[in-house]
């Protein structure tokens, strides 16, 4: 795992070009970049893999349901209260947020509890990798993050990744005053 300090906005906007290619004509990608986006400390290629998996799953969900639709990617800096409201119960301060949502059929309640299980898939045999969400879950955990899924039947699904904000170590000046 190659952890580096990444700017959340740059990470996703650079990656957007590739995502648009993956989604093709029938699925529209809408991006919403928040203001004052934080830095995070994570493995860049892993984080991209996680977002890509979510985007491809969202694409397949809207395609299967109605031959097309919308996939939305949102990044934000959340306050503690916002993060708790969006599904991160242990938030204790500002949190980096990446959400991939779709306007597809949503996730059936009976499936919600097992979507992160390894090898669990709702896709027919021979379609999709079946790795998607277990992989995403592992990457988020490895990045000291939290993932939450919000879905209601016929209202699409929203996968929400919460990551700790990386604060650069404060300059050393503070220590000089204590002598």
Describe the structure.
This protein starts with a strand and ends with a helix. Helix 1 (8-23) runs parallel beside helix 2 and helix 2 packs antiparallel against helix 5 (132-142). The protein has six helices and seven strands, in the order E-H-E-E-H-E-H-E-H-H-E-E-H. The mean pLDDT is 87. It is of the alpha+beta class and 179 residues long. The protein has one domain: Histidine kinase-like ATPase, C-terminal domain (Heat Shock Protein 90), CATH 3.30.565.
What are the SSEs and their pairings?
Elements: E1 3-7, H1 8-23, E2 27-33, E3 39-43, H2 44-66, E4 69-78, H3 80-85, E5 95-102, H4 109-112, H5 132-142, E6 146-151, E7 157-164, H6 173-176
Parallel strand pairs: 2-4
Antiparallel strand pairs: 1-3, 4-5, 5-7, 6-7
Task: Give Rg in angstroms.
Answer: 17 Å
- CATH C-level class is Alpha Beta
**What is the number of domains?**
1
**Helix/strand/pairing category:** alpha+beta
Sheet with the most strands? Answer: 5 strands, mixed
Largest sheet, spatial ordering of strands: 2-4-5-7-6
Our measurement of the CA-to-CA distance between the termini, rounded to an integer number of angstroms, reads 40 Å
CATH superfamily: Histidine kinase-like ATPase, C-terminal domain
Number of strands: 7
Query: Helicity range of the residues?
Result: 25-40%
**Order of H and E elements:** EHEEHEHEHHEEH
Assembly status: single chain
The 3D shape can be described as globular
Low-confidence stretches: none
- According to CATH, what is the topology? Heat Shock Protein 90
> Strand percentage, roughly?
25-35%
